[in-house]
Structure formats: C-alpha cells, structure tokens
Write a structure and sequence with these properties.
By secondary structure, the protein is an alpha/beta fold. It has three domains: 10-72; 77-136, no CATH class; 159-327, Nucleotidyltransferase, domain 5 (2-Layer Sandwich), CATH 3.30.420. The protein contains 15 helices and five strands. The protein has a five-stranded mixed beta sheet with strand order 3-2-1-4-5, with helices on both faces. The longest helix has 12 residues, at 10-21. The protein is elongated.
C-alpha cells in the first residue's frame, strides 16, 4: 500500500540546501530524506531563485519554503504579486492581449511568469470585474464564454455545395453571372451594422448592401433585394466563406435560383475577388465608419465610383461597361453611363 504524500517541511528543505551545498547528488539526498528522487528534482526546480545577481541565484531553504506556502494559498498568482498585477493591467490598457502579455514575460526572462489563462481568470474574477478590465480585452465580452462553446463553422454546408463541386468555368471566369460574397465588419462600439459586398467574378462589378446585424436571414434578404433587379443570366451562383451569416443560403436558390458554393475552411483566398474588392472599399469606408449613420446615397456613390473606375484586368474598361456588354452582347461596352438600353431593369447602382 502506497503511503500518503506529505509536503516537504522546512527542516527537510534545510537538509536539501545543506547537502546540495556539499555537492551531494540528488539520488543520495532523496535516499537520506526517504523521498523519491523526482520529489527532490521538482522541489529544486520549482523553488529555484532566478536572480540577476549570481550571489542570490540558487536554491535557499527559507525562500523555497515561503514560495511553496504561497503557492498553496487560495489566492491567484496576480493577487499574490501586486506589482505583476499592475504590469498586466498596464499592458491590457495598452491593447495587449493576454497571450501577448504572457508570452512577453516568458521571453523577457521575468522572475515571475504567468499563463494567458491566469490573466483571463484575473480579468473575469472579482477584482478584474470591479476594475472593468474586460473592456480592455480584444473582444470586450462582459462575460466569459465557456470553452469550446463556439460551434465549428461550416456544419450547415453539404458536400454538394463545397467549392470542389463548383463548375470549372466559374474558376476560369469564362462564364458570366457568378458572384462572390463577403461580410465587411466595422468597430463594435459603433453598433452591429455591417455591409455585404457582392462582386461579379468576370466583370468585377460591385454591389454593397447594408445589414442591421449578422443574422443570416437578414443578410440573405439584403442580397436578394439587390440581385432580383438583374436578369437571371446575371445571377447564376455565389461563392461564400463558411461564416454562419451565410447559413440561410438556400433562400437564394428557392427565391432566385442562385446556386451557392463555399470555400474550404481557413481559405478565404479562394474568393479572392471579393477580398480584393473589400480592400478597395476600405479606401472610402474605414473600420471606424459609422455604417448606421451612412446615407443610402453615399453608399450608392461608392458603388458607382468602384464600378466606373477602369481596371487593368478588364483591358482598362470599367466593371459597368463589361457588365453591360455581358448583359447585351451587341454592346461593346458603354463609355457613357446615360446610354442605357430600354427595357433593362435599371436602378441606381446597376447598369
């Protein structure tokens, strides 16, 4: 029967210090104390003093006993080390993440090190809640989510809608009417409003629509409202990433007959056209823009500015010209936006 484990006493630590000073090996020290060698190795490693001054660097029985007692207290490490807590709070206010703080302490050779989990527990503990430290975190959540709470993305995507099943003429841009879609997010402090960006792959024609939040049904409704003004050949398919805001993609098929395809996990480059377009939109709408206060007129002006800019990849024609020539093959491309074909479903922002 194994005897119950007992913590090392101050007398035993004094003996370890004496024997180590006499350069006795650890197995001999363990045999004299009646302890397992691993116990002695752990004791020396855990309570070793890492001081810059060589004279105060090493294993000392009194300091080791104090450190061991402090670890057994129910207080957290940041509560036991006020100076370290102040340092963590300063770093959080400087927009450092807990992982960055913990990693920096580790590589800088600090005497006391902590993990990012310790920082999160401090932030969401009584002291951190009193100071409102959650506001300094990257996501600024008032309450911490349970670990593994977030569901994996893409569970709603059947195999028939993955990008591998997309017809090859879409990838080569030889077919017209195939779009890419993405969601553009802005600063959380300004509300939940966001933009859906849609880009036709062949013409690079851009459509922007505003959403109140990331609710999938609302996002899809905004897309359908814009796309239904186009003829059926101009809206054949859309490629999305695996965000849950696109989980209601079946509405596009049911209402407008549009097929939906989804990128592989962690592969937004597979819809690189819309990713590139988002960068162009950011020239006019930075992340600090208040989308809720943005007028529809301004949004349409941005779309027209993008669609009337010549593109090298289009032979320096504009996306509006290429889209019009695709809708009506008899037209080589319009240089004057007032040359609109009669009977076309023209609304501002569409050719």
């Amino acid at each position: 029967m194994t005897l119950p484990y007992t913590h090392l006493t101050l007398a035993e630590r004094r003996e370890i210090y004496r024997l180590r000073s006499a350069q006795f090996p650890v197995p001999v020290i363990a045999q004299r104390l009646g302890r397992h060698p691993s116990t002695i190795y752990r004791e020396i490693s855990r309570n070793w003093m890492h001081d810059e001054e060589p004279l105060y660097r090493g294993y000392f029985h009194v300091a080791a006993d104090m450190q061991a007692r402090a670890r057994r207290q129910r207080l957290g490490k940041l509560s036991r080390h006020p100076a370290l807590a102040v340092h963590v709070i300063d770093c959080l206010k400087a927009a450092w993440s807990p992982e960055q703080i913990a990693g920096r302490l580790r590589v800088s050779g600090a005497l006391v090190r902590i993990s990012h989990e310790t920082i999160y527990r401090f932030v969401y503990g009584p002291q951190g809640q009193h100071l409102g430290l959650y506001k300094e975190l990257p996501m600024a959540r008032r309450r911490r989510r349970t670990r593994y709470q977030r569901k994996p993305r893409g569970l709603f995507i059947p195999a028939s809608n993955t990008i591998e099943q997309r017809p090859p003429e879409i990838a080569t841009r030889t077919s017209f009417g195939h779009w890419e879609g993405d969601l553009m997010m802005f600063r959380r402090e300004l509300g939940q409003h966001n933009l859906t960006s849609l880009v036709e792959r062949q013409s690079r024609y851009t459509i922007l629509t505003r959403n109140r939040d990331r609710n999938s049904a609302g996002v899809m409704s905004g897309m359908m409202e814009k796309l239904q003004a186009l003829p059926a050949p101009a809206r054949q398919s859309i490629t999305f990433d695996r965000g849950t805001e696109f989980s209601s993609y079946r509405l596009l098929k049911h209402k407008l007959g549009i097929d939906s395809y989804f990128c592989k996990p962690q592969a937004p480059w597979q819809k690189g056209t819309v990713e590139n377009t988002n960068g162009r939109v950011r020239r006019f709408l930075s992340r600090d823009a208040d989308i809720a206060a943005l007028s529809e007129e301004t949004l349409l002006d941005i779309c027209e500015r993008l669609n009337e800019t010549p593109r090298k990849c289009l032979g320096y024609r504009t996306p509006a010209e290429v889209l019009m020539s695709s809708l009506d093959p008899g037209l080589p491309g319009l240089s004057n936006p007032d040359q609109r074909s009669p009977g076309k479903p023209w609304v501002r922002g569409y050719p």
